[in-house]
């Protein structure tokens, strides 16, 4: 997920250092699993202008829709939308910039279908700060 040009973190060497807005994004990312008990967060990293993360939808007891009796599991797009809404509101409250865009409209998703693919994506995420720093040196 890319955001709209404001830096929420800096990369020094291969280490990500968060500013106050970056901490809000981090806290909101972690909040997802408290808000949606059927989620599990795997590898993730907040970069200066984007976030990489693996979200797993797991088998867990969850609320049931009153209308249908079907478990009320939100689609990934709505979950990401909630993350962006909550983090944007908190960042704009802190900055006193109501209504300012923080995130780009869409997000990129990839369904991980094997252990090999999961391992590859985890390495990509973990190495992202090092690659970022190498590109800028």
Can you lay out the helices and strands and say which pair or pack?
Elements: E1 9-12, E2 15-18, H1 20-35, E3 39-46, E4 51-57, H2 76-95, H3 115-135
Antiparallel strand pairs: 1-2, 3-4
N-to-C order of helices and strands? EEHEEHH
Classify the helix fraction into a percent range.
40-55%
Q: Name the CATH architecture.
A: 2-Layer Sandwich
Beta strand count? 4
Helix count, per DSSP? 3
N→C terminal distance:
24 Å
Instruction: Report strand %.
Output: 15-25%
Stated plainly, the CATH topology is called: Alpha-Beta Plaits
Structural class: alpha+beta
- Please describe the biggest sheet, giving its number of strands, its sense, and whether it closes into a barrel: 2 strands, antiparallel
Enumerate the spans where pLDDT stays under 50 for 5 or more consecutive residues: none
CATH hierarchy class name: Alpha Beta
Q: Specify Rg, calculated over alpha carbons.
A: 16 Å
Task: Please describe the structure with a list of short key phrases separated by commas or semicolons.
single chain; 137 residues; alpha+beta; Alpha-Beta Plaits; two-stranded antiparallel ribbon; 3 helices; 42% helix; 17% strand
């Amino acid at each position: 997920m890319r955001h709209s040009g404001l830096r929420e973190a800096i990369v020094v060497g291969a280490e990500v250092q968060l500013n106050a807005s970056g901490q809000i994004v981090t806290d909101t990312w972690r909040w997802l699993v408290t808000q949606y008990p059927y989620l599990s967060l795997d590898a993730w990293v907040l970069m200066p202008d984007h976030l990489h993360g693996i979200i797993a939808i797991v088998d867990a007891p969850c609320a049931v829709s009153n209308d249908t009796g079907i478990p009320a599991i939100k689609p990934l797009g709505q979950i990401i939308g909630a993350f962006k809404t909550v983090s944007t509101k908190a960042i704009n409250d802190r900055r006193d910039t109501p209504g300012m865009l923080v995130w780009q409209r869409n997000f990129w998703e990839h369904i991980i279908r094997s252990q090999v693919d999961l391992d590859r994506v985890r390495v990509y995420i973990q190495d992202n700060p090092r690659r970022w720093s190498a590109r800028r040196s």
